Amino acid sequence: MDLTIDRRELGLEVLRQTLSGAPVRLRLSGSGRRAIQKARDVIEEVLRSGQTVYGVNTGFGKLSRERVSDDDLEKLQINLLRSHACGVGDPLPPNLVRAILLLRIRALVQGHSGVRVELVETMLELFNRGILAVVPSQGSVGASGDLAPLAHLALSIVGEADVTYNGRVIPASEALRRTRVKAVELQAKEGLALINGTQVTCALGADALVRALNVAKTADLACAMSVDATKGTDKAFDARIHKVRGQVGQRRVAANLRRLLKGSSILRSHKGCGKVQDAYSFRCAPQVHGAARDSLEEARRVFEIEFNAVTDNPLVFPEQGEVISGGNFHAQPVAAAADRIAAVVTDLASISERRIENMVNPDLSGLPAFLTPRPGLCSGFMILQVVAAALVSECKALSHPAAVDSIPTSANKEDHVSMGPIAARKARDIVGCAERVLAIEILSACQALDFEKEQRSSRPLDAVYRWIRRRIPSVDDDRSTSAEIERVTAWVNDGTLLEVAGRQGGKVD
316: which DSSP letter? Predict the structure, then answer.
């Protein structure tokens, strides 16, 4: 995909492709080039006039009252990057660094940061050639921007520190030499413009959101399979019930469940049984899954705004020739959205685990204990439910909101911070747990359906069941299932199972 970077908005789909590792090539538009230059002209005028402007010719944070001499302005910028590049922890995956770089370029092209066109062109070269900084995952409080991780990103632009190139970690200077990309020599304002911003929080949050939206769809598929596996009823999914409440996500989920279960002979086979109501984890799936859908759509709205935001400081307004200091670097909007993702995905994992319990517990399901044809001799799916419970407990522990946990920094100059990167990292971890819980639910439903000898599920659900069974056999005798859970998790993650259902009329919206 060729993508022209200008003032047009980036959406979640572009971030999805960038995060997936799909080929994306960036180029700078003429309008973007002109916007960058207009802002730079203002900075040059500030320097000529001798004005004192924060971030241009002063220190930073608590040191903002310290004026820096004109002779030291370039040294000021490189010192800023070097001093701030003190992140710790495991490096972020290259696909996330790629997304961060894209978002940082997008912000600078808006024409309010005061950098030179040459700087942005070098960043485009790094993106297009796959020269990606090694960025530690920990060390940002999400205001004044994602300083530490963005400083590591910025060092690659000046040819310092390490980068990932062609799958190997090598010095940035070596990668630039091999590709004949010239390292940037920073000028006034440019170091600060590179590290002030919410792009690390945004990239982490975008990854969590893309996967969370997929988890929400897969939760509907897993639930429908579990309904048939336990000979549940679809009465609670009647459109009239959900219309009178009116919640958008709830109606959407109920429609998905009706579509997925339509034509199931298993459903028809027990219409006259004495069972009146299913457990809440089945009966209230539209309400619970739907609430998650609504929250994820709101998170998407917030993140897509932030993808296109200018979040460094100070900001340049070329039309008025002004440089104004503010606080757009504060990541509270996206931090709160990431916390929302964490909470609702935890709930999707929690209700999924309850459906697993309904299937493996013979007192609830009427199925053989722990879904094994040899109870006693074999433990069957007993510990798969335990694993799901452990994952859900981990989700709950991680879902404590990070955005409410401010700690003052920079000698109390930065006295309220967002903890946005922490919120987003936790959300990603929770999504990973939820993917595995859903994989266990789907495997459990397949195992339960193995006991149904006379009737078949609907076309989409039967297609998923048979697709899995061609690759993972029924557990007739105890065996380790760790690798099998991970295989199904991968199919949850990449949407394979949703595609299988969709090809048979079971598209999940």
Answer: E
Q: Which CATH class is domain 2-197?
A: mainly alpha
For 104, the enclosing helix (H) or strand (E) is helix 94-109
**Which structure tokens are listed for 275?**
């069972």
pTM for the whole structure: 0.95
3 state SS of 317? strand
Residue with tokens 């295989």: 487
Residues of the chain with CATH 1.20.200.10: 205-233+281-502
Residue ranges, comma separated, of all CATH 1.10.275.10 domains in the chain are 2-197
Q: Helix (H, G, I), strand (E, B), or coil: what is residue 279?
A: coil
Compute the distance between CA of residue 330 and CA of residue 311 in angstroms, rounded to an integer.
8
pLDDT of residue 6: 86
Phi/psi for 59 (5° steps) reads -75, -170
247: which 2 tokens?
A: 């919640």
The whole-angstrom distance between residue 344's C-alpha and the CA centroid of its chain comes to 13
Can you tell me which residue has the tokens 């538009």? 29
Best CA proximity match to 307, nearest among 1, 16, 2: 16
Question: Which residues, listed in sequence order, are joined to residue 138 by a DSSP beta bridge?
Answer: 88
Low-confidence ranges of the chain (pLDDT < 50): none
| Count of residues making up the chain | 509
What is the pLDDT, as a whole number, of residue 459? 98
- What is the rounded CA–CA span in Å between residue 37 and residue 121? 12
Note whether 458 and 466 are within 8 A (CB).
Answer: no
Supply the DSSP string of 452-487, one letter for each residue: --S----HHHHHHHHHHHTTS---SS----HHHHHH
CA angle 492, 168, 204 (to 5 degrees): 40
Q: Which CATH number is 205-233+281-502's, of 1.20.200.10, 3.50.50.60, 1.20.1260.10, 1.10.260.40? A: 1.20.200.10
Contact 249, 216 (CB under 8 A): no
d(CA 109, CA 99): 16
Residues 220-236 have pLDDT tens digits of: 999 999 999 999 999 99
What tokens does 256 get?
């998905």
Joined tokens for residue 115: 């950098």
Which of helix, strand or coil describes residue 322? Answer: strand
Please identify which of the residues 54, 165, 280, 465 carries the catalytic annotation.
54
Establish whether 165 is a catalytic residue: no
Burial of 179 (0-12, 13-18, 19+ CB in 10 A): middle
Q: How many C-beta atoms surround the C-beta of residue 243 within 10 A?
A: 11
What region, left, alpha or beta, does residue 161 occupy, with left being phi > 0 and alpha being psi -120 to 50 degrees?
Answer: left
